[in-house]
Amino acid sequence: MMLSEVERLNLNNVSSRMPQHGGKSWKKIGFHSGKKTSKVRFVPSKTKHDNDVGVFLSATYEEEKNELCMWSVDPMAQFEESGEKLNLKCSLNCEFDCVDMKISDSGRVFLCWSDGSCGMFTVYPTLQPSFTWQNLHRSGGQLHCACRGVDVMGEDVVTVGDDGKLILLNSYNQTPVKSIDASSVGLTSVCFSKHNEVVTGNSRGQIAFWDLRNEGGKPTGVLCLSRLRGEKTVHPTANSLEKHPTRTHLLLSGGSDGCVTLWDLRNAKFPVEFERTHTGPVLEAHFHPEMQECIVSCSSSGDAFLWDCSLPSTPSTFNPVANGMNYFF
Amino acid sequence: MMPSVMRERTVARFCGLGRLTSHKTRVPRPDDDTRSSSALPGSDRVTYIREDSIFFNHQAARTLLNNSYVVFSILQKHKLAKNRNADTNFDPGYEIFDVDPADLSLVHVSRAYRRFLRDCTAELLKNKDTNKMETLYLSSIFFSLELIFHLAEILNLDHSQNSHMVPKLQEWIQYYFNESSDLADSVIKSRDDKSPVECNPDFWPAVTGLIMTAQCKEARRLLGLHSKKETPAIRTLRQLLHSKPELQSSGGASVAINFSVQWEAWLKEVRNQLISGVFSTNQHCLELAELLAGDNKAEKLVYENSETWYKFLVTYVSYWKPTVESFRLGEIARKSMERFGMDSQMKAVDKILLALFESDLYQVIESLQEFAESGWASLHMTDLLYHAGLLSNVVGQDNKIAENLRTDLIIQFGTLLAANDCVWRTGLSYLDFAGSQGVGHIDLILQSRGQKSAKDAEILLYEAGKRNLVKAERTICSVVSRQYLMEKRLGSALMWAIKGDNHSLASSVAELVLREMAVNDEYSISDVLPDLGTSIISSGHLVFLVKYNEYLTKYHDGNKKEAVTILIDLITSGLAPPYFIPVLLKKSAQAAKEAVKVFNSTDLSNILGVLEELVVTAHINGTKDAKSAVASLESSEREIREVLAQSICQAEIAELAKV
């Protein structure tokens, strides 16, 4: 059974959970890393060596010595109850907090730092730094400007930051290719939609579509996460964006109000909101890479949900089928 | 040379949570007559000082901290003290996170803490690349803490009317001081055919150690390897060890009575064998038989073979007082300590263990605070004892003292953690359990912590929002908003001001935007303004700004009629600030030129009226804004008047034509 990719944030636990047959329960093969982990990413299977199962990277934040670590899952762990089953393969020291991380199919890792720069690393043969684009996102004052999101498609890399800029980079080029003033508030998440199209989320709950070929600084479309809660309008930050791997009209967003929203871009006025929302900000929401109908989301409050959209339910709401409660801070 | 009239002094003051700043300064001497009262600057170096703790940067200790916090919170939330029927044989380990809390009790919590302490010690010893002395020192502290928690568990938590002390104490000693087993193993391994096993100098010490720690089966097995095991001395000793009755740790009074009867019978047998002289051929066997008989002559043997007074104590109760009740242990502990001459040289661990045996729980807590790291141990111990209801009984008053003590310890530990960048959120989580005082501390911490970036602020907001700390939320948002304002990032400033419900700040930002637009005829925050919803109600400037943005959007999209309606509303409503009226007038003129048909004559007249009013007011008694507005209109005033006049004519003609 393939390990599902679960990204958990604000953790001191680095752990992976496998849905058991049918996805009804999670089996934990966790281990305590002792450092606050901001991002966890599996390395894509094409780039792994054959004898490594479930290799993943973790990056820390708010530590005196931040680290980027590579771990592998002990293959025998699937059959045992508990205990230390994750092996630390190597680690690199980092000066700043990691805010976001993406791994390309070709085995390159891109990290966003809290000082507004973006670093590129290679995974194999060993984890090592390749290049850092410094000062991509800059502030003019006391508040640091962090690079908040990164996505990669082929050679192209796109980053967004607190300064509201969307920056296009090329893996082989040390100078940024293009910079767009995308928003007057900070941008918090980004993903590639097609090769020249990018979707960004900002801290005002607006999701904007950008065609990178256009010269102007206007988006081609905007969606809104703001909603009326009681008497007050809430503007959740769009923390996470992802396009479905095969059905490109589907977009998934996770907001700071605990809502996971699925957009059908053919009919974007009526998004699907997942009913049992998280109690804390949703930090990541992803489509399962293997199980096409499943979505995984996790939040600051310490819960991770697996949503199975193939089960019969009311038209606009889904309930989670598995709920991994865990304690993190 | 003149003596210096200045003397150097180090000054320190509090700076933020849990931090001090320190610097040197020079101040006049007290006998200085020059009356110069101001201190001259000394060194230009300022030192930041904060309390350090192993929990801040040792990975093993961080793991301990996090795991123990989770168990601590399970205990608070699920009131485990009341689960009396939970299976006390269950040792949960890390499963405690997944087990249904209804199946847990205080004993399980204590065992979980011990497991985490054990793993912390093991982890510290594994990572030998750090400073070796420090690692050994820290691992010895955690080892001692595990010892202490285990004894506290035996004496206070895993203790019902049906349980007996001695077997548990034996397990306790065997677990932490298993040198005898190791020695026995090494003796067995080193066996060869050349010499009998009893020639190994460790043989008899191993047998003695095993018997002293009540591991009689192992002792018997080791004796069975003796080359002369068929001799009467050894055979009898082995047989006595085999028939020694064992008291189960639970079972109640009937089991104790049965055991007493069996024990007396067995003792009689041992003493008979001693009197018969069967052990006279082997001095070792004789001494061990005396020990089994609880003979006072054996006391010296026990003393010589005990490294610590508590090992001595456990052997003593095993063979002299096997059914001892817990309340007598204090007396026996004191006597053991005196035997070892410990009165004058008690170490911290000894103090705590003695206090546990004497059931002096407040002394235990006080000593733990002095001994162990950062208050972790005293807090968790106090909490366990508090929930077991054992602290209030001691004082004889109501539970308030115990409750206050627990709250104070939580606050002490929580604020220590909250002052550190790595574990501050754990500190807040602990403070959650300190009642209203904890809430107060959290409120202060969140407001004074400061944020380095928007992401930090979002985390602070989340922590404040979780606890409904509205004031803290507002403060955080307002501070971030002002920081963005200083950077001239008006969109973010506006957004944070709205988030923090700071109407006046939102209004100020909106005004800045409007002024920017009045000058530049364009503005940077157009993406923020749609969909603000109910957030704008608080501020007139914001309502105006949103409406103006709506007008611009609609006009740009070609929806001129609706756009113009909004524009007219904006001009004639009186909401427009004076400096912005020129912009509106220019827009009206432009719209009238391009699409006069969407206006009616009344509206156009009203617009002209507004222009008149502006000019008149500015000339007579105008504010600075009004005057500069008129000044900026100067070049285009004539054109606007012409356009408006023409449009009024056209509109009136069109209206008459309809009639």
Short summary of the structure?
Chain A has strands spanning 11-14, 17-19, 26-28, 31-42, 56-60, 66-73, 86-94, 98-103, 108-113, 118-122, 128-133, 147-153, 156-161, 165-170, 178-181, 187-192, 197-202, 206-211, 221-224, 227-229, 232-234, 238-243, 250-255, 260-264, 272-273, 282-287, 294-299, 303-308, 320-325. Chain A is mostly beta strands.
Largest interface: A-B, 53 and 54 residues
What is the general shape of chain A? globular
What is the strand content of chain B?
under 5%
Taking the sheet with the most strands of chain B, its summary is: 4 strands, antiparallel
Which whole number gives the mean pLDDT of chain A?
A: 77
Chain oligomer state: heterodimer
The total beta strand count of chain B reads 4
Mean pLDDT of chain B: 85
Based on Cα principal axes, name the global outline of chain B. Answer: elongated
Helix content of chain A: under 10%
Q: Nearest-angstrom radius of gyration of chain B?
A: 42 Å
The major sheet of chain A is characterized as: 5 strands, antiparallel
Distance between the termini of chain B: 109 Å
Residue windows where pLDDT falls under 50 for at least 5 positions of chain B: none
Strand content of chain A: over 45%
What is the radius of gyration of chain A computed over CA atoms, rounded to a whole number of angstroms? 19 Å
Count of separate DSSP helical elements of chain B:
30
The arrangement of helices and strands of chain A along the chain is EEEEEEEEEEEEEEEEEEEEEEEEEEEEE
WD repeats (chain A): 250-273
InterPro entries (chain A): WD40/YVTN_repeat-like_dom_sf, WD40_repeat_dom_sf, WD40_rpt
Keywords (chain A): Nucleus, Repeat, WD repeat
GO cellular component, one term (chain A): nuclear pore outer ring
